[in-house]
Amino acid sequence: MSATVRFAPSPTGHIHIGNARTALINWLEAVRTDGTFLLRFDDTDKERSRPEFAEAIETDLRWLGIAPHRTIRQSERLATYDAAAEKLKAAGLVYPCYETPEELERRRRLRRAQGKPPVYDRAALKLTDAERTALEADGRKPHWRFLLPNYDGDPAEIARRDIAWDDLCRGPQSVDIGSLSDPVLIREDGSYLYTLPSIVDDIDCGVTEVLRGDDHITNTAVQLCLFEALGADPPRFGHHNLLTTASGEGLSKRLGSLSVGALRDAGYEPLAIAAHAVLIGTSHAVAPVASLNELAGMFDLKGISRAPARFDPEELKSLNARMLHGLDYEDVTDRLAILGVAGGEDFWEAVRGNLEVFADVADWWQVVDGDIDPVVAEEDRPFMADALDLLPDEPWDETTWKAWTSALKEKTGRKGKQLFMPLRLALTGLDHGPELARLLPFIGRRRTMSRLGGPA
After folding, report:
1. Apex 32 CA angle, 316 and 38, nearest 5
2. DSSP states of 198-228 as a string?
């Protein structure tokens, strides 16, 4: 059965690797079922929502390979939410409350002191019309709460009621809504919190699966009650584990280094980020993939662990390198041209095994085709003179290095690191890198002579 899924970020900042995990899980479900992916901007917070953040989120998703089939903005659907709110008010399922945050906090402390759960006591339901009129005349504006169906007859007598569902990721789940406060749906200024608009959108857009982080499990029980109150069939819910930092800290937008944009700027491949974000914390090994379609075929909602998954940038770096090492020349031809890297397939084959990010290939091209600072120890000067004397004539190929170093070994008696490291330092300025047998033909005889201390 094809699924209709949604990713619903608030455009109040840049999305991070944890948000990308949720977006990708939903996208893969759409790909796997030949379904529909909705991008919904939860932008009813007028003070914090910014168009530039929405644009950045769309850019990040597009770079990851996610192409929404439809994009909606909650700020454009307020009349629809107003109609749903009025329907609930008329049914007596949403009621006005006038307590200030300070008053609510005092009540919570009192209930804790009495050994009771710190939930809202529904005192506002007992207000008379005259009392409400007096409060409003005193300048108080109501916020509106949804009356949870956790009572028999008298709403003041809250009873246990378990709301259960079969979670697509975690299996059977149950939450006692008798342990919850009636959620606020509408603020004093008339603006909506997340809950009601989300339910209305899911109904109107025909969302069949809601896949999100497991920090929303309790919210699901409330939302199932709202679907029922609005006379709609609910979607199926699945709650995946959350990503944390390597130290176990929760991810947040303030961790700019883990934003998708920052990871892109650091040179990571989108498919490496996708594979790592999706497969970490599952029963599947984190491994390179060739496409999101391949990743969709590997991924299984039931294979997600219940424990948080730790995101380690070093592991992403390793995966990124492995992915680059497996790319064929045909995969990167256009990207090499953009970076101004010549050398063709032979050069790519020579250096790809030494890349951590793709931009490293330009550094290696600079090593062979540009100006570098050769490193020659004073005690190695006579050795460099011998190397110059024995330097073969061109044309050069991959056999040139062996012929040259064999002649040097025979003349100087040097071998192993003592033979090869001074040459590497002189020819590349580095103590590491690709095989010099493959690089030497690209460096060429003229540059080699110059770097060994001979004429330019």
Report:
1. 85
2. HHHHHHHTT--EEEEEGGGHHHHHHHHHHHH
Domain ranges (residues) in the chain? 4-72+197-240, 82-163+173-179, 256-325, 329-369, 378-451
Q: What pLDDT does residue 277 have?
A: 95
CATH code matching the domain that covers 4-72+197-240, chosen among 3.30.70.60, 3.40.50.620, 3.20.10.10, 3.30.70.20? 3.40.50.620
Of 143, 121, 119, 117, give the one whose Cα is nearest residue 132. 143
pLDDT tens, residue by residue, 386-427: 999 999 999 999 999 999 999 999 999 999 999 999 999 999
Q: Any idea what DSSP says for residue 395?
A: P
User: How many Å apart are CA 305 and CA 281, to the nearest integer?
Assistant: 6
pLDDT at 392: 96
Scanning 299-359, the segments in alpha helix (DSSP H) are 313-325, 329-338, 344-351
CATH fold of 256-325: Glutamyl-tRNA Synthetase; domain 2 (1.10.1160)
Which helix (H) or strand (E) element contains residue 4? strand 4-7
User: For the chain, which ranges sit under pLDDT 50?
Assistant: none
253 is known to lie in a ligand binding site: yes
